[in-house]
Structure formats: C-alpha cells, structure tokens
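Tokens as discussed.
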C-alpha cells in the first residue's frame, strides 16, 4: 500500500491546555471494525523483504502517526479493559512498542519476553520453531506473579510459534493467560491453530499472502 491515508482521518493531537505542545490523542472513531479498516491503510507493503518473494508488512507509518497509534493501542485495550489484567507481556521486539502503552492504560505492569541471552537474571525458557530448527524465548523467573492475570501483546500473529511459546512461559511460572492481542494477523499462515481455546484480538487480518 501507499504511505497511509490523510491525517484528516486520525486527527492526531488536540491541545491539552498546557501551552507547551503536549496533547491528548483523539480517540473518537466509533466501532472496532471501523478503526481496524482505517488502521489497515497505514500498513505499508514492502516486497521482497527480508527475502525474495516475501511481502513485509511495515507498521512504522502507523506508529509514526499520533492518532493512528493511539487508535491501535485503544483498540487493543478495549476487549480487556474490565478483565482484571495484572500484567502485560510484550514479545521482543516490536511487541514492546505496543505492550507498554497497553499496560499503562490497563493499570497493569509490563513484563518483557526476550530472545535468548538478553535478560540478566535467572530465566525460564521455551523453544519455538523456526523454518529450519528452533530458537529460545526467555522471561525472568520472577517476572510474573503466580496467579496473576496476564495479557500477551505482539505486533504480528504469523505461524503462532512465538505466541504459543510465550503462553507456555506464562503458565510455567504459574500465571494465567487471559488473552492475546496483535496489531496484525497473517491468517493464511494458520497461527490460531497453535492457540486453540485462547481469546485472540487482531486489529487487521490478512486472509491471503499479498493482500
């Protein structure tokens, strides 16, 4: 797609009254479906990246627009606003960008799940499948409170391997996964099959490659 729709759709910041340029994102577009359709216009297709034949979904135009970013975060929050979420997990790396503001709006803590060797203290580990071989995800062993209600946030649901490994990590330390939220879902890759029985929110879903 192109570089995104006009900013007249998402009006960005309205003055806070501070007189110092700080604003409050407008959150006025009614309906999750309407917002999802608008958000899709900010996702840019990058052909042949990172390898030939792959169409990469670039979310940076969405992140760089204040109103669109606010709309995405608000829409991820809505299904879980009254669900008693205690902690929000962000999955490395773009998941951090979304999970931190989601945690803030839910009044919850933020906990990172990272690739192997990035966390400094004692960790729990889970393998997940790559096209060839496996890799490891890690969480601090004391990062989640046993019995806490956890929301998992990442940028994309693709094959579901990373998300499923994150769920296993949460449950390994004795916490409960309430749901998972994603900005994009590549539905043609069948990632939901690895998350059967889980509550999943995906803002923009692509039914086929190149859509």
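Sequence:
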């Amino acid at each position: 797609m192109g570089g995104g729709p006009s900013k007249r759709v998402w009006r960005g910041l309205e003055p806070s009254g501070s007189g110092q340029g700080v604003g409050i994102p407008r959150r006025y577009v009614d309906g999750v479906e309407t917002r999802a359709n608008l958000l899709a216009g900010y996702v840019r297709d990058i052909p042949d990246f990172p390898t030939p034949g792959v169409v990469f979904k670039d979310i940076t135009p969405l992140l760089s627009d204040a109103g669109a970013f606010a709309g995405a975060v608000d829409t991820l929050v809505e299904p879980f606003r009254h669900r008693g979420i205690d902690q929000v997990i962000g999955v490395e790396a773009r998941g951090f960008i979304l999970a931190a503001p989601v945690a803030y709006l839910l009044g919850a803590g933020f906990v990172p799940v990272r690739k192997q060797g990035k966390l400094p203290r004692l960790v729990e580990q889970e393998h997940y499948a790559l096209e060839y071989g496996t890799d490891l995800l890690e969480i601090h062993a004391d990062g989640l409170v046993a019995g806490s209600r956890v929301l998992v946030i990442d940028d994309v649901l693709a094959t579901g391997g990373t998300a499923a490994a994150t769920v296993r990590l949460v449950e390994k330390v004795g916490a409960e996964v309430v749901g998972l939220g994603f900005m994009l879902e590549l539905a043609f890759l069948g990632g939901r099959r690895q998350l059967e029985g889980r509550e999943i929110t995906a803002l923009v879903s692509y039914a086929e490659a190149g859509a």
